[in-house]
Protein 1
Amino acid sequence: MYENNIDTPEEELKRADHLVFVSLKYTRTCDIMKNAITRMIAAYELSMTEYLESLRKEGKIPLVPFTVKERVLLVKKLFNNQGKKYLMLYNLLKKIDKAEYTVSEEFRKNVALNLKGMKPSEVKVEHLYDYLTRTKDFVSYMRTLIGN
């Protein structure tokens, strides 16, 4: 049965992992790349929400902000330097997701998203591997902060 409401960042990571390592291997389309990036963003946001919920339950913050942007700003304020490096990747993924792009070598080995007016100017499969690894690191980092 298809699940519409995914509750944990680990579930999102499983789906992103499958998109990057299985689906992308066989299809080589930019739609799969974009979907994987969207799943990584969702894993970040779910992790931050869970972290803020745990802080609210402990009484360290009065409430969890309603919008994603406010949550990110609050998490950034609460983080040390190690946590902030993860948020740089989150911001990059958000920019890549919103950027205009063209496709190069779709259905071939070197499929890439060519981003217009942005650095990096290109996202390849190897970059997705790196982004996914760093997203997994962020989720495990957040779990250590929560204490799970």
Note: The domain at 9-146 is CATH 1.20.120 (Four Helix Bundle (Hemerythrin (Met), subunit A)).
Protein 2
Amino acid sequence: MPKGLDIGTMNIVSAKPKDGQIDLTKQRNLFVEVEYSDIAEKMLSRSNVLYIKNGKKVYIVGEDALNFANIFNKETRRPMNAGILSRKEKDAIPMIRLIVERVVGAPHKKGEHVYFTCPAKPVDAPIDTLYHQKTLEAILHNMGYNAHAINEGMAVVYSELADSSFTGLGVSFGAGMTNACLSYYAVPVTQFSVARGGDWIDNSVAQATGTPVDRVTAAKERDFRLDASSHLGELQGALAVYYDNLLEYVVRGLERQTRDAKVQEDLEIPCVITGGTAAPKGFRQAFEAKLREADLPFRVKSVSEARHPLYSVARGALVAAQAEEGDHHHKDSKK
């Protein structure tokens, strides 16, 4: 059974076929450390809480980490930072392994195909994504999977642009990075990432206004709207400033990366956006306006939002896995 896996800085989502539908599973990509006690371990072992015991420490992982963090007044920690495994978090690998195992489950048979998302090497930061990719491949291989990496932007194309023969621009605005892919009939013409996303906005606004990051994030997710009504000097106004800067930054990167791309003359393509950072009202309209002003070697026919933003990347990874399995069966039948 083929599977798709979206490994994001904030969430890890799996997609697999089930009874003619797509079964989706999500876990928060975070954990919290709590003190060990015999009573606590007994309670946890009898529950469905995801945890790891290490000496005198117990790590609560995934969705439950938020609840435990509130109860014990602790800060949650993330296995990933800026779109890849965190170099500052020594427990990153065992934590992300546990979340991946819970989300994707064991293969029905050894060698089952799974496509997992991996960011493209950023064009604006000295971040190497190879170690991140190979570590995730090893985790999935040890689980019994035949693992393949796919760019988030390409996964968006697979998920949302079947009606245009997988030709178009897919952009995933994540927490750690923003990934983009220009595809022509399912062949990536160019794909890249920039090391800015939702976390960059939150941290920038926090520094500019002296507001705690958690409060900035909560305000952004609760009622922020990207439009001209945001007032300077207020938190909403600061969010608007940095959102506008992010969009400008991504479009400038797109201009540079597509300048030498070999695209068909007079090509008119659709664009689809997804990701938690693209969730605020007014985001699509603001990004579309930036794209239409940009110096690009193609025309943008439309900008639309993914049907299910939280799950679209995992769905696209599943489409790629299904195509891989279909090719594999086709090759076997010729033998």
Note: The two ends are 22 Å apart (CA to CA).
Protein 3
Amino acid sequence: MARTEPRADAITRWETIQLLRAQLLKFTDCDTSICRVAADKGIYCKGFNRFGDGELRRRFAWLGDRARTMSREELEEIANRWQLARQEVDGLPIACDVQQREHDTCRGWDDFTNSDLARFYYELTGVSVVVA
């Protein structure tokens, strides 16, 4: 089987993640994680909205009974603050980087194929990239 060489105009997965991170950071602040922004704006991975109520509660089951009884809005607020706290503790710029390392509420950048990353970048910037 012949090995396919990457296209000359392709950029690496790592370069694409760096470009995406720079774009996503424009939406965040010290009170708002990318998970919150993505859910509120319906962009990127859709953040907390990518999970139904039951799945979101399962992912934050470590909250115990509170995760089962609080409203979704309350749960998302705690999840947002938790993502921001993990960024601070881990010294990482964005929740995707935290989850890349911790793999607890999602798998961060590992959740996405190269095609997904290229699509996200196009959706955010209008610029097409080929990820190799």
Note: The mean pLDDT is 92.
Protein 4
Amino acid sequence: MRTLSSLVVALLVCATTAAAQDPVREGLWEISIQGEVGGQPISSTPLVMRQCINQQTAQDLMSKLAGGAGGCQVSDYSQEGNRARWNLACTGQVEVSGTGEVIMGSEGFNGTLDVVVGTGGQTVPMLQTFNARRVGDCK
């Protein structure tokens, strides 16, 4: 879950940066992720992470996603208004394929990542919903 959550953070920063057509708004961001595996909630409470995002961390996350982070590729990226959609495929020890969507607002963004995760010859559907908001300046 933690590795996929890191992937979600990278995807969110990448998608939001690309969709906004402007530099990412620097600062401390709080990202809340609620997950389901096979239709069952992973936890009764969301995973909440805070991360300081600036132009360099956004570029680093994009590089990891495009290069080494599990061989992930984003394709069929499209944007209509404040909504962005993409397909995702990752190869390696854990294979991931599916779709993502993010809706941007003035103070944050929310969306979903709907994927199938495969490892050891088994696959399982996973749905993650997320909300993110800028909570202040980095310290």
Note: Helices lie at 2-20, 55-66.
